[in-house]
Design goal:
7 helices; about 180 residues; globular
Length: about 180
Amino acid sequence: MTYLLLAFYFFQIGLFSIGGGYATISLIQQILVVENQWLTTKAFTDIITISQMTPGPLAVNSSTFVGLQVAGLLGAFIATVSTVISGCIISVLLYHFFKKNQDSTRMKYLFTGLEAVAIGLIASASISILSIAFFGNMTLELKTSTINWLAFPVFIGVLFALRKWRINPIWILITTGILGFFLYT
């Protein structure tokens, strides 16, 4: 039964991962953390962080990790394949449809609407991640005992380094990983 649940939910994640990457965070969080409790909020945030350092999309990385955690190696395989196969099916079907209608004005309006949805999903996921990183929860409760004061200057520094100097994100991940090791141990 666990294998079927993994296949069903990760097929669903792959199927509805419109916008890819960060746009899928809300959906993945809803299924893995809220509905099934396969991950804690903290573990989910850690997966997002680790996914930045490993090759592959967030949905695939999280499916492999959760599948392995919930049902071992076979669970990891089933969850990963289920995530990927749904996207492949949709891509093939949509390719033919879009190729046929690529000059349609309505199609252009559709994409404009989808861009706005993707931005909203990314913003929602960003707020959740910021809330967890800074306040230790997803509700934005401002308890001074749970505020992670060290995260604020790191966040501002990373934001500045990326926007002002356009430093390669890999170097930022390595540097902040080392910094985090020393700051939090």
